[in-house]
Specification:
Strand order of the largest sheet: 4-5-13-10-11-12
Strand content: 15-25%
Number of helices: 20
Radius of gyration: 26 Å
Number of strands: 17
């Protein structure tokens, strides 16, 4: 069943403007003549209707937001990646949102929200956001652009690097308040401040103007494909759902529903769990490693836009698999990605060549705000995931030469990366924590066989999260 939304009036007005060659559109200033026909076609296409309960993004307003955001930065490139294309036998295109001024797409939604709020209420209002990451930086950049004052609430545990970057982007227009140890406490403080100051709360994802701003990513993709043919697959990361709601809404009618792939980290499957339950679900435990997509609850508006998708279209990507992608893109492509920004590329490996071969695939690279202090941990996780580094507890006899005997068991490509030995004089055997790196995961098969043949006891703790986190 189709029912008309108020936005349909804008579509009719767009048609009248095309016919009368006017310069302005209701609610959309500075609409250029060359854009009128496109705007009209989007309106007639039913850009603002509801079909079977699915709210579709207003493509007309998205195009207006796209033009306005050019005040801040040019279109981010859509790049054909030769390396990934050869690996999967497909056309793999990367939409490089890591190349915006704040190195993530979040600047789009924040800019669009503030653009409309300033036009409606002026610059005297105080704008508030709660974020420890990309949303805070996009918000700060937009506040400085519009010359409005904003307050950013961040958890006390926020890395100093993110605090400093937010302050740089916002300059004198931003105040930063550190409140609480976790995001929920920080968010509650931000809401209270909004109530006390009669300010504007700028949501990171759960607001129509935010979704509309993020949808400009899709508007650019449509025009950037060289032959303007629709992609076979669009792969995107999901956190709170603002980007995915905007992309799927704008591309509706161009890309079939079954050709959207959503990616979430295994430790934060808020969309998948919500689709399975048929309603938004709040996760009780969230792994914050993929901090840009570690959201406990999908936005309500975003879930409304995505609820018609089956949960099978949500791919859960292991955090350590994401680390493999980060390291590979850094080493082979010279591209710096944060964990959330690597999600869509990491999903390619899970989908596999069989599903991708011969297809045109777009991966939205959502951000590149990577703290290089995390690099050793990311490399460690990547090596463990690919099987070229293992940790195990080895029991050695308490006698001279026992360690030398063990070292003789190592292969030519095996390297001792960690060694901790605690001698117990009252025991005949001592326990050793040992980490081994090699260049081929199959080398461990031979090593373990030689250890067993030597009569030594060992326990592989590489995949034991409790022991690994405690000991390693």
């Amino acid at each position: 069943m189709v029912r008309v939304f108020p936005g349909w009036i804008e579509a009719v007005r767009a048609g009248r403007l095309v016919l009368s060659n006017l310069e302005r559109l209701q609610g959309v200033p500075k609409l250029r003549k060359e854009s009128l026909c496109q705007a009209f076609s989007y309106g007639i296409a039913g850009a603002i209707v509801k079909f079977n309960g699915l709210k579709i993004v207003d493509k007309l307003l998205v195009e207006a937001a796209r033009r306005e955001v050019r005040e801040l930065f040019p279109e981010t490139p859509l790049q054909l990646n030769e390396h990934l294309s050869r690996r999967y036998g497909a056309e793999i295109w990367l939409k490089r949102e890591d190349l915006t001024p704040v190195r993530s797409y979040k600047i789009r939604g924040a800019f669009n929200f503030l653009r409309k709020a300033v036009a409606q209420s002026g610059k005297d209002k105080v704008f508030v956001c709660a974020s420890a990451g990309n949303h805070a930086q996009g918000f700060a950049f937009a506040c400085r652009h519009f010359g409005v004052h904003g307050v950013v609430f961040m958890p006390v545990t926020t890395p100093q690097q993110k605090i400093d970057k937010t302050r740089i982007f916002g300059g004198e227009f931003i105040k930063i308040r550190l409140v609480g140890d976790i995001f929920d406490q920080c968010y509650a403080a931000a809401r209270k401040h909004v109530e006390e100051t009669d300010g504007y709360m700028v949501s990171p994802f759960d607001h129509k103007d935010i979704i509309e701003g993020q949808a400009t990513v899709a508007a650019e993709i449509v025009d950037q494909l060289p032959d303007h043919n629709a992609p076979d697959l669009v792969i995107m990361p999901v956190g709170g759902g603002g980007l995915s709601a905007g992309l799927t809404g704008f591309l509706a009618g161009k890309v079939a529903n079954e050709n959207f792939i959503f990616c979430e980290p295994v430790g934060a499957p808020s969309l998948k769990k919500s689709l399975e339950a048929g309603k938004p679900v709040t996760l009780t435990n969230v792994d914050n490693f993929v901090d840009g997509a570690a959201v406990a609850r999908i936005g309500d508006l975003n879930f409304e836009a995505l609820q018609h998708f089956p949960p099978e279209q949500v791919e859960l990507i292991a955090e350590n698999a994401i680390c493999v992608t980060i390291i590979e893109m850094l080493n082979l492509e010279g591209v710096v990605l944060e964990p959330a920004g690597a999600l869509s590329i990491a999903a390619l490996e899970k989908l596999g060549r069989e599903k991708l071969e011969g297809k045109r695939v777009i991966c939205v690279v959502s951000g590149g705000n990577f703290d290089f202090e995390r690099l050793p941990d990311v490399k460690e996780r990547a090596m463990r995931y690919t099987g070229v580094k293992k940790y195990f507890i080895l029991r050695l006899p308490q006698r001279p030469g026992a360690l030398r005997d063990f070292l003789d068991l190592l292969g030519p490509d095996d390297d001792v990366a960690r060694f901790e030995y605690l001698k117990k004089s009252a025991r005949n055997f001592g326990s050793i924590l040992i980490g081994i790196e090699t260049n081929d995961r199959e080398n461990f098969t031979g090593l373990f066989q030689r250890i067993e043949a030597a009569g030594l006891g060992y326990e592989d703790i590489t995949e034991n999260e409790i022991l690994a986190n405690l000991i390693i």
